Amino acid sequence: MKDSVAILCAGGPAPGINTVIGSVVKSFLNAGYEVLGIHEGYKTLFTDRPNVEQLDFIFADGIYSRGGSALKMSRYKPKDSEFRTDFFVQNNVKLLVTIGGDDTASTANRLSKFLASKKVSIANIHVPKTIDNDLPLPEGTPTFGYHSAKEEGVRIGTTIYEDARTSGTWFVISAMGREAGHLAFGIGTACHFPMIIIPEMFRHTKVTFEAIVKMIISSMVKRQMMGIEYGVAIVSEGVFHFMSDEEIESTGINFTYDEHGHPELGNVSKSHIFNMLVQRRLKELGISIKSRPEELGYELRCIRPIAYDLSYSTLLGTGVLKLFKEGKSGCMVTMTPEGNIVPLYLKDVEDKNGKIRPRLVNMDSERVRLVYENNLHYITQNDYKTAGKVLPDPAAYDFRKILGW
Asked: What is the pTM of this model?
């Protein structure tokens, strides 16, 4: 039996997954290995009938430039008690390539330790994938898929901004991002949105709907003072990660609940929640400003990768073979700004529970400070007199005071 390599994709889609898969397949076939594609992530891997397909050059060559994932994906997270060695031993697997985000990497990390404890010698190399850009790669190094998703978000965002300008109204956008605000910040900056709200902003205060609503209205009123009747506010869905169930339920939205009793946020539009709360407050204040909700989520995940991600993902996929030949394992494949492939070991970026720590937006970086200091519109202390004509307490809508900056 030939030595084989197995590829697994888990989590949500990101532009460039097929490019990575195609590049790994072509590289390892050329090196004399069989390549097995595991469908549905970890879901069937430890069962008696894993959902597996043997991959060839024609398969790889047909998918490398496509969006989505030719290997079906799943968010299933196996427990340590489910781990088995059967699949790896029976198929003479020498390397497991995992493509995914922090949860996929964390599971691969646990699996590697299990296989080592059973004296099964299998390397594991992880390819960091997420449009959220929140894996702990070196500063300035993106996760593949982020730039393609941002590009599509900017395309949609500029259209929405043009609609706002044309119709003299406001839009409240919610953007994907889990607990990090990279995507919302990147889209908002590129589109020149007057308000960008990400969870990392709340360093000195709690994340609440009250604070979010006040910041959006702060921008609306500031623009009115400037004679501008339109605008767009973008909010990262990551803010929900830092809210209690009680805070979320206080919106009055009728949620469905999961088996643990938590509101199922995936079943509702986050932008609708933000917009509804803003409109409620505007009516209470007697301010007539129209706004509409727009969601940036699933629209971004399965688009065709842009040239940057096609090249980047190709190098990461071929980089897997390089690291494998060098005997590397238990690591993520990364590329330096100079284009060199280097390993980033999972043990160096995991917490005490073995979970990969997320990379958040660095609020102290100059690029972030420049945007918040110069590109946004919001009420400051110098605006109190004029803003007081429409707001009973303009200091309560002072952007910096809301955040405790």
From this structure: 0.91
